[in-house]
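B., you asked whether I could sanity-check this one before it goes into the benchmark set. Here's the sequence:
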Amino acid sequence: MSGLDLTQVKRLYVAPALQAVGLSETARINCVTGVGSVESGYKYLVQLNNGPARGFWQMEIATHDDIWKNSLPAPSRSRIATGLRQLLHGQTPNADLMVTFPLYGAAMCAVKLLLAPAPFPAADDPAGMSQYHKRWYNSPLGAANALGNIPDFKAAIAA
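And here's what the prediction gave me:
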């Protein structure tokens, strides 16, 4: 079974989600699209084997909660927090909502990437995006392969 069409994911989930939180630069849209492709293949909404990750972007519950507790309260991020709440249509932020609201999951992925202290890769740099994903989203302990995932980011850029 293959996942969702990447062009539609990018156009119908990722781009509007990132627009809602004010992070709609092409590089971010491409990278978030690629992260979902690597993390779930746009097939899985809950991590396999009872893992803690949620949504197509497979963000762990603890990461979701930490972002809301420690990063989003900053006044400089109020527009992002407001946009995230709008994507939830009045529901209280909860990691499980990344499963039922894919736009929310995409936006949370973008926020996680925003928090990285390194410069963001260029919009047309699949190798840079794959390395950035591995270092700042998946973590050195995660299963992602920065070299092996370059084709996923290349496809996300082309979508």
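One thing to flag: Residues 121 and 129 are 6 Å apart (CA to CA). Otherwise nothing jumped out at me.
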